[in-house]
Structure formats: C-alpha cells, structure tokens
Amino acid sequence: MLPQDLKAKVLELTPGDRLTLISAIVESLQDTATVQPERSGAIQRMRGLLKTEQPAPTDEEVAAMLEERRMEKYLQ
Fold first, then answer.
1. Residue 43 and residue 1: Cα distance in Å, rounded?
2. How far apart are CA 58 and CA 64, in angstroms?
3. CA distances (Å), 35 to each of 24, 26, 29, 31, 68, in order?
4. Would you call 74 helix, strand, or coil by DSSP?
5. Cβ contacts of residue 65 below 8 Å, gap of 6+?
6. CB 32 within 8 A of CB 40
7. Residues 6+ apart with CB under 8 A from 1
C-alpha cells in the first residue's frame, strides 16, 4: 500500500480509531528503540576483541604497508 493510499484510509477512520492507531504506532516505535542498546552492547564487545597490546601503526608504517601491498598486487 502506498503512503498516499494509507493516508486516505486513515482519514476515513473515526477520531477514536485514529488515536488507537497512533498509540499502536508509538508502541511499535518504542519496541524498536529498545533494540538499539543491545546492538550497542554488541558493538562494544566487538571493539574489545580488536584491542591489542601493540601500539597503532604510524602514518609512515601504514604508507609502507600500502605500498608493499600494491607492489604485490600489481607487479605479479
């Protein structure tokens, strides 16, 4: 159903039925909002898996790794 069709159908409802529909929509949105913290917790746990004792590479080291990879990729 297209949004325009849905809007036309909603306008055919009585004011009480429209309020009931609004309540149902708000409840459904609140249910989806509780899913976000679970997802956020999973992201935090994944970040913990990526932690190492080694320092992050410097810009020069990253540039050297990229250059090495390009040479492997394009010169073979």
1. 35
2. 10
3. 18, 15, 10, 7, 43
4. helix
5. 57
6. no
7. 9
Higher pLDDT, 48 or 23: 23
CA-CA distance, 65 to 67, in Å (whole number)?
5
pLDDT in tens, 39-54: 777 787 787 777 788 8
Give the whole-angstrom CA distance, residue 39 versus residue 47.
12
| pTM greater than 0.85 (yes/no) | no
User: Could you tell me if 10 and 18 are in contact, meaning their C-beta atoms sit under 8 angstroms apart?
Assistant: yes
| Spatial contact of 13 and 21, defined as CB atoms under 8 Å apart | yes
Domain locations in the chain as residue ranges: 3-74
